[in-house]
Amino acid sequence: MRRFLSVLAVWMAAALGAHAQTPSWPTHPVRVVVPFPASGATDLVARVVTQRVGQELGQQFVVDNKPGAGGTIGAAEAAKAAPDGYTLLLTTSSTHAISPHLLPKLAYDPRKDFTPVAHVADAPSVLLVTNSLPVKTVGELIAYAKANPGKLNYATSGNGTIVHLNTAAFAAQAGIDMAHVPYKGTALAIPDLVTGQVHVLFDSLPTGMPHVKSGRLRALAVTSAKRSALAPDLPTLAESGLPGFSSVTWFGVYLPAGAPPALVDRVHKAFTKAVQSPEVIDSLAKLGVEPAAPSTPAQFNAMVQADSARWAAVIKQHKITLE
């Protein structure tokens, strides 16, 4: 009996110690895996947000870029890390809502291998058209496409990208057909859009709007559910005759599967607080990104699963592949 009580006391002390240690996270530098290249949108968002988190917590957060295969290489590496809070994944729709439906043999399971932590930001896109098209609204674009079947094409940043999926979803809901012209990035498509060689492009706000302000291109709408604070005069697609249309590139934080609830709560609170600071909001706006409304890890996960189901349907309907 005495031995049993002794063992029990040791076990309880260890349990209490582990519980007490979690709220003290982090006690040494934290690695934040970003599965995309340096200087890209996800990398810049990660650096803005984690710098603020590090300032608040008094610890260094080190961004570790692990690009390749649409973000899946870095995501797979993060999935294998210990769930102790010292390896985080800051990623986007690509690794958890799109790639699973394009790459069936992933080295990770987006649901089973990660613990959702925090939805930190969203990046809406803007629908751009060449000035040579006689349209100034989404309704006019749809009417023109229906009156001129086979004459319109659209640019994307490649097969299976969010730009491709956005356009496919838009065309399907609008009931129009346009030819797909893939590029290696939207920046390469802009000159052809300006000259009228391609007609339509869904681009990010910070890269697309300067061409609108200079008069080289025309903006018709944004893809978010609500008007963007970054372009408040532009209507949403939902306002423009496509009810329910909503699409953003979301940015979120994950821990590897098995992270204890107290740790998840600690990390969640740290990132949620950071993205609400005026300095971070201002820095994100310069990137064309808006802070996410506060939500729980469960709500973040539900949003991701809904996004995943939506893109799975679009990919299947349009038979989109990476070839």
Helix share of residues?
Answer: 40-55%
Profile the largest sheet: 10 strands, mixed
Number of helices: 11
Total number of β-strand segments?
10
Mean pLDDT across every amino acid position: 92
Radius of gyration: 22 Å
Distance between the termini: 68 Å
What is the SS-derived class?
alpha/beta
Net shape: globular
Q: Name the helix and strand elements from N-terminus to C-terminus, one letter apiece.
A: HEHEHEHEHEHEHEHEEHHEH
Hey, roughly how much beta strand do the residues contain?
Answer: 15-25%
Give the low-pLDDT segments.
Answer: 4-22
What would a concise description of this structure say?
With 323 residues, the protein is of the alpha/beta class.
Please give the structural blueprint.
Elements: H1 2-21, E1 30-34, H2 41-57, E2 61-65, H3 72-79, E3 87-92, H4 93-102, E4 114-130, H5 138-147, E5 153-156, H6 162-174, E6 179-182, H7 186-195, E7 200-204, H8 205-213, E8 217-222, E9 248-256, H9 261-275, H10 278-286, E10 290-291, H11 297-318
Structural notes for this entry:
This protein is an alpha/beta fold and 323 residues long. 44% of the residues lie in helices and 20% in strands. It has helices at 2-21, 41-57, 72-79, 93-102, 138-147, 162-174, 186-195, 205-213, 261-275, 278-286, 297-318; strands at residues 30-34, 61-65, 87-92, 114-130, 153-156, 179-182, 200-204, 217-222, 248-256, 290-291. Strands 1, 2, 3, 4, 5, 6, 7, 8, 9 and 10 form a 10-stranded mixed sheet that branches. Helix 2 (41-57) crosses helix 9 (261-275) and helix 4 (93-102) packs parallel to helix 11 (297-318). The protein is globular and about 65 Å long. The model is unreliable at 4-22 (pLDDT under 50).
